[in-house]
Amino acid sequence: MDDASAGSAERDPYTRCPDCGFIAPPTSMDYALTPDLAGIDWTAPVRVTCFICHADHYPAAADVLPLDSVMTCKRCGEPVACPAGAARVRCTGCGLFLTGPDLTPAQRDELRIAEGLAGVALRETYLAARERARRREPRASSLSGTRSNRALRYGLRGGRDGRFPDPGCTRADGWI
Ligand SMILES: [Zn+2]
Ligand SMILES: [Zn+2]
C-alpha cells in the first residue's frame, strides 16, 4: 500500500499551490527522470503548473503531499488515493477530474471562481497568441518567400496560359 501510494505520488505529485492555496495534481509539469528512469529526479528543478490557477511553481520533493485519503470516482467507481483536503483529484481509473470530498461549500465556491478566472485568462492568452500569430503571418510568409513567390508563379502561369488563376482553386491549393 505504501509502495503503491509512493508510486502514484511519483506519477502525479499533488502539491499545494502557493498562489491559489489549493491542493491538486499538476495540469502540466517539467522534470527530469532519475538515471534509472524510475521516477522524478528531485535534485533537478521541477516545474509544476497549477491545475486550478495555472500559476507555475517549483516544488521540492518534500512539498509532494502523501496520498493519505481515498475518494471514490463518481464515474467509474474506482477508489482513488489522494491527499486529505485535495481540491482536485485525478481518477486513476478513468482520468476524470473530481472535486475533493473535503472541501467546504465556501472552498468549493473559491475553487469555482479560481478555475473560472484561470479559464478566462487562458482564453485571453490564447486569443492574444492567435492574434499575434495572425499579424506575424504575412511577414513570416514573405520572409520565407512562400506566399508572394507562389502568388507570382501562379500569376505567371496564369499569364502564359492566358488565364488567371481562379481564387477558389488557389484557396483549395492550400496557400491561403
Ligand atoms: Zn494555483
Ligand atoms: Zn474514474
Description:
The protein has 176 residues and is α+β, with helices and mostly antiparallel strands. It folds into two domains: 2-102, no CATH class; 113-162. It has helices at residues 2-11, 105-144, 146-161, 167-172, and strands spanning 15-16, 23-24, 26-30, 47-50, 56-57, 69-72, 79-82, 88-90, 97-99. It has a three-stranded antiparallel beta sheet with strand order 3-4-5, with no helix packed on it. It has a two-stranded antiparallel ribbon with strand order 1-2. Strand 4 and strand 5 (56-57) form a beta hairpin. Helix 2 crosses helix 3. The radius of gyration is 25 Å and the shape is globular. Residues 1-9, 140-162 and 165-176 have low confidence and may be disordered. The structure holds zinc ion (2 copies). One zinc ion binds at residues 73, 75-76, 78, 91, 93-94, 96.
Task: Name some characteristics of this structure.
alpha+beta; binds zinc ion; three-stranded antiparallel beta sheet; 2 domains; two-stranded antiparallel ribbon; disordered C terminus; 4 helices; 176 residues; globular; single chain; disordered N terminus
